[in-house]
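FAQ

Q: What does a record look like?
A: Structure on top, sequence underneath. For example:
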């Protein structure tokens, strides 16, 4: 996992007022996972809401099952420590990140509800409409 290094890089770019491009081959799974982890760290969102925020801007966002598991583990075990680390390292976040994320989440949910109620073309495509798996779906026990 490269969450700490990625979160640090993204945050430092943003604090410097610079842009930051997070990319992978398709821009669907790996890069999305890192951005979701960052959003989780700078807000109080869990991984599913943070993913919805990303989907509001990039509808094809869909981390693979392994990355979903990592995000679930991050939420369950690590995100609180990362939030504390970010505050200690960089101070309080004075930006409007939480409000902006809430606005995007609201936009995503409104569009999803509208699509569902009208039976129209999905606002998010088939890749992003795959259901998230619950934490218990990942087990090594048989």
């Amino acid at each position: 996992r490269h969450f700490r290094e990625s979160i640090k890089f993204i945050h430092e770019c943003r604090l410097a007022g610079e842009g930051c491009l997070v990319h992978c081959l398709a821009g669907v799974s790996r890069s999305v996972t890192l951005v979701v982890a960052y959003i989780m760290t700078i807000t109080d969102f869990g991984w599913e809401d943070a993913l919805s925020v990303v989907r509001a801007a990039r509808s094809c966002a869909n981390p693979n099952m392994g990355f979903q598991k990592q995000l679930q583990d991050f939420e369950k075990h690590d995100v609180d420590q990362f939030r504390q680390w970010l505050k200690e390292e960089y101070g309080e976040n004075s930006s409007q990140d939480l409000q902006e994320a809430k606005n995007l989440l609201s936009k995503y949910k409104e569009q999803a509800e509208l699509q569902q109620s009208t039976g129209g073309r999905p606002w998010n495509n088939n890749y992003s409409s795959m259901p998230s798996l619950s934490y218990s779906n990942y087990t090594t026990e048989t």
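Q: Is there anything notable about this one?
A: The chain has one domain: 3-130.
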